[in-house]
Design a protein that fits this description.
Helix content is 53%, strand content 15%.
Amino acid sequence: MDYLLTEEQIMIRDLARQIAEEKIVPVRAELDETGTFPHDIMKTLAQSDLFGLFIPEEYGGLGKGCLELAIAVEELSRACLGVSTTYAANALGTYPLLLFGSDEQKKRYLPDIAAGKKLVAFGLTEANAGSDAGGIQTTARLEGNEYVINGTKQWITNGGEAGIYTIIGITDRSKGPRGASAFVVEKGTPGFSFGKKENKMGIRASATTELIFDNCRVPKENIIGKEGMGFVVAMKTLDNSRTGVGSQGVGVAQGAFEEAVKFARQRVQFGHPVITFQAVQHMLADMGTSIEAARALVYAVSRFIDAGAKDVSKESAMAKVFATDVAMRVTTDAVQVMGGSGYMKEYPVEKMMRDAKILQIYEGTNQIQRNVIGQALIKEAAKANK
């Protein structure tokens, strides 16, 4: 379909696709097998200015929005979800600064982020705080002109590789969720270290580690926004980033779909290519239709955010839940279309299927997204009845 992209958006899409085809596809199997972080690919993305896509021009970026980021993420995800997760998580970690950072913080951190000199990570999840962000145990206590941070963050994408971390800690437990605050912590800060690198089912090229804070002291100026704004910072960040997860779903589904179509045209059974069989055609038809529907929703919500919509929780949750469910269904069906071949590592669809599962889990499980959508619909209905 023609999504009426501008010439510049088409250039971004074509550039990301070229990098995906030339730099990612040849090494994706090896990166997956070894769990190697894609340093060289990140350098290529930096040299291509893709890290600066969503950063304002005044801080060295290109000044684009969620739609342009979604387009780039989709193309990278079409080749390898592990690589695209590394890239997309960089945006996730940057949004707290973009949305709530002071001018001084933006001047200090955003130029290096835009240039790809430093990766970013977002630290919210803990052992007892995932979908329940109110269960955060990490604390940040003000002592003079410094905050002393103690606690452990779990399953943090880009952990250990990023140079900049935006994390959520409790500054006043008596206030519940309103007692959380957001901070910038730089790699190398005394008292800040990393746990083991996780051995994952999928997205194995991305780094996932613990963040350990042991009397880690950061300047008072490192707070993002004000004390007590941490929960708002986290939720608004996720509202803006979930279209990125949706675009990952569209991308990996598109990649798996293309592999399935190519195989079905080549595989001959009973004297005919299997793509001529109606059962296979119907599977491919459902796959293609679902992908177009998911892409249309992700692009529409991205445009909605870029237009300045203030409350996008429901729409971003819809984009995330629909597109990632499509990703899981399409990658699974791609393996089925390809039969035994699809189950073998010789073909990329088994990796795509393993990778796709995380999309239904991170940045808020799809069950939690349905709660968000349902609660928003209840509020809308209550307003309409007044």
